[in-house]
Amino acid sequence: MAMLEVKDLHKSFENTVVLDGVSLSVEKGDVVAILGPSGGGKTTFLRCINFLERADSGTFTFDGVTHDLAHIKNREISQIRKKTGFVFQNYNLFRNKTALQNVTEGLIVAHKVEKKKAEDIGMRMLEKVGMADKASNYPSQLSGGQQQRVAIARALSADPEIIYFDEPTSALDPELIGEVLSVMRNLAEEGMTMIVVTHEMDFAKNVSSRSIFMEHGHIVEEGESAAFFANPKMERTREFLRMEANRGI
Amino acid sequence: MPGLLVTIPLTVIAFSFAMIIAIILAMVQVADVPVLKQFARFYIWVIRGTPLLVQLYVVFFGLPSVGVRINAFPAAVLVFSINEGAYCAETMRAAIESVPAGQMEAGYCVGMNYYQIMTRIVLPQAFRTAFPPLFNSLIGMVKDTSLAANITVAEMFFATQRIAGRTYQFMALYLELAFIYLMFSTVLTRVQAWGEKRLNSYGGNKI
User: Fold this and answer.
1) Same domain for A71 and A188?
2) pLDDT at B204 over 80
3) Which of A84, A196, B170, B186 lies 20 to 30 Å from A73, alpha-carbon distance?
4) Taking CB atoms and an 8 Å cutoff, what residues of chain B touch A54?
5) What pLDDT was estimated at residue A247?
6) Which of A160, A186, A213 is the last residue of a domain?
């Protein structure tokens, strides 16, 4: 059985349809890359399944329980969020907290973990992303890549079942992208379940197990990443991949 | 200077209450609490739209005619708290709204609830932003307390008036009074600089 299943998700802003019936099923250990042009609904999809946006309709099954996305209760939302992690495009580290406090804050306040124990976990997570030596630095004292690695440590801290990444490298200078992608690759290799909205084609191709091409609020094509990139079925997908491949030229 | 022992407590007590009022008024607006939000807007509209001196007169000279008698000092504390609360509420509201929405979202994503995020993440950052304008208000209020002389509160201005009335040393006495207010403000300005430095320990509200 899938660990996470979204069925027929619809979302409009004002009169603009952003998601027009999106369905997705994720198995434990999957790394799903969601690709597509800007404005295609990728980020909104991720925000809807973590309830940062309220969907208009659709169902969401997680841990064997099915919820109605339009009417899910706050209590259920907070239960689900405690088992998921979210990494933002612009990091969103708590500006008034150190790197370590960013990681431990949720553990102590939301998960009621004892402070000393939370700090042990926090240091372990920072080590994992190579940021242990900056534990006492504030976000304003860190580079974008470092902030994003702390943000990943924060998302990992409560031992989530799945982590959502919303264009985690899009705000970074080119020379800082690699350090974040390598942390994400390590997570994938450890078997972490991830949904990654990204423009990094190499990451999608080489690290993700499945790739999805989304445009105009629809999933145009999805498949095993190897097949998806080697032999895309839809003309539109081929065109998009060709354009992405030529981006640097 | 006996009036000093009235001016200082009046300022400290009234400003403390004003801060409490300000945070409550700002919060009900930011959290969009129905009814209370409308009440907050109404309160701020009335208080900011009427002169402080008139408010003092209404409470001290007006209320007794409807059977509410309040002594001069508590009346002054009441009016200054209510008045300053309205101005500081707007400062606090603007400061809270200046904290990026992403801070709130990140809090939700690690499982925290609205109250936890507000008290631990948003308000501390908002307070950093609000600190200089709040000090502005405090310094303004120190000087405004001289208006309380009009309702017989024996603060510095009142005391000076009485001495001047006896001695006819108007120039010397009022200049001295002005100097004392200036010293007051100078000390507060120093405290502000020190406080800002401390609050900047996390690099202020940069990225």
Assistant:
1) yes
2) no
3) A196
4) none
5) 74
6) A160
CATH number at residue A229: 3.40.50.300
Taking residues A182-201, report their average pLDDT: 95
Q: Which of B109, B129, B207 is most worth mutating to test chain A (most A CB atoms within 10 A of its CB)?
A: B109
Could you tell me if A142 and A105 lie in one domain? yes
Q: Which residues of chain A are at the B interface, by a Cβ-Cβ cutoff of 8 Å?
A: 50-52, 78, 81-82, 84-86, 88, 90, 92-98, 105-106, 109-111, 138-141, 147, 154-155, 157-158
Q: Which of B106, B128, B205 sits opposite A88 (nearest CB)?
A: B106
The ipTM (two decimal places) reads 0.93
In a domain, A6, yes or no: no
Q: What is the pLDDT of residue A189?
A: 94
Say which CATH class B4-98+127-202 falls into. Answer: mainly alpha
Find the mean pLDDT for residues B11-35. 96
Are A136 and A79 found together in one domain?
Answer: no
Region A26-34: mean pLDDT is 95
Q: Which helix (H) or strand (E) covers residue A8, if one does? A: strand A4-13
